Amino acid sequence: MTNRLRHHLLGLALVQAALVLPLDLAAQTRPAKGAATAGGPGAATAAERAVLRVACEGDNVGAAITLNGRFKGECPVDITVLEGRIQLRAVKQVDDSRERTFEQGFSVVGGTGKRIDVVLGPVQLTADAQQRESQRAKEAQQRKADALAAAIKAAEGGDASAMYSLGRRFELGHGLPIDYAQAAAWYGKAADAGDGRAASQLGYMYLAGSGVRSDKPTAMKFIKKAADLNDPRGLGLWALNGYPMRGNDFAPEAISLYQRGAEGGDPQSQHFMYVIGSAAGQSAKSQEWARMSREGYRRQAEDGDFIAMFGFADSYRYFEYDNARYMEFTRDAIGAAEKAAAAGNSWAALKVALAHYDLFHADSGGNKDAEKAAAREWLKKAADLGEPQGKWGLANMTFD
Q1: What span, in angstroms and rounded, lies between the C-alpha atoms of 75 and 28?
Q2: For residue range 255-269, what is the model confidence (pLDDT) as tens digits?
């Protein structure tokens, strides 16, 4: 009888005997002279050998099977093994860098049979690919460290753009711990050196009390400086705060400033131009401003700027009335704002509270109680951090 036929008959016997070989079948499991078993080469008594059936179905078929590190064939396969401890591994390549695997450790007793059903796991990187990814991650981390060192050196050397970038790093926690005092200091130096972005960012921080004490006169000084430097965001902030609306009407000076800010790429100014254009019946142009505003907020949100992230979420509420996406992106923004609040930003804590308040009213599902509790919790946190509107909200906001 050939080994192939012997193994075939053994497979039938395994199925018929509930996968336990009687000892009187052990003689049929004897391999040809000199054949290797999973436990090692050479002869072994019948009582020391067992039959292992490695079974698989569907896309698990064809997986390479190793027992204790030695290749034994492709699944499905029947293998004669020595009794003892066995570590089975099945691997099926997806491509050069990805694979699916299955591993199981077990013991077998001589004179018996055992069946293992291979069910491959999800696609994962191969060991070599994981090493390559790890090396790439280390190199990327080193590049970030080098870039940070270069930015600090340039900022300390008086480069205005580098000073702004360093302030941004401190504000958002990019490669450095969040430190609003340091952020404000570097923004101030950059603004003094003529960087409009730094002036508008510092002005906003003082206006909102975002990481620094709220100080409107100081805020307006820097916002006006940013506008004079033709910074797009500064133009929009100056329009909003220097020329407030008269009832439902925009001041002509504000419209001019918003126009300039929008054309320069400021998402908030573009949002206001959408409102102004819609009121004037300029539908096509308004929709273009809306598209540009959302895209601008999206780019800024990629840096983890919670203000931009809330702006991006709001674009789905105001431009498309897409409540589901508004809620989805608002929750993303909440996560970023919570990080800022943990660093002591009272304005961020208030934004989290207001977001939960909005979600309380927007959510028609079963989360209203949770949103209400979260809104109250974050109003208290904002108040504890010194945000006046947090105290006002606790006293006056209703959840009807």
Answers
A1: 22
A2: 999 999 999 999 999
